[in-house]
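Pinned message: reference record for Transcriptional repressor
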Amino acid sequence: MSDLLERLRGRGWRMTAQRRVVAEVLNGDHVHLTADEVHARATAKLPEISRATVYNTLGEMVSLGEVIEVATDKRAKRYDPNAHRPHQHLVCDLCGQIRDVHPTGNPLTALPSDERFGFTISDVEVTYRGLCPNCAAKA
Ligand SMILES: [Zn+2]
Ligand SMILES: [Zn+2]
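Predicted structure (tokens):
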């Protein structure tokens, strides 16, 4: 899995201390954080970082195409550093954990032509829901 900080540096992004903290918070596999969660974690590393800086930095990373916005629930947009490998999401209904998953077959071509209404389809978003093993064991 490619490193978000390396990718941003490779894009010529000016790495300030504040930007670095936001990138560090978002770096990793299966990371899907709301802006508020990013802000809370960034504050733990850099107490003076403002919410506005976090929001602006997230917006820049999305504009660069190195972070994607995902909407797996109705509450808040989440930020996902897995921007280069197309994937869908698996969400636990109880604890809310989100995994990146890769369904077999191409979901873009899975829609029959008579269901396309003449559209040229460019993207697809599928959210699989259920219970993770921990929550299933408790339920
Ligand atoms: Zn769970
Ligand atoms: Zn994801």
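Pinned by admin. Summary line: Residues 88-138 form a domain with the Dna Ligase; domain 1 fold (CATH 3.30.1490.190).
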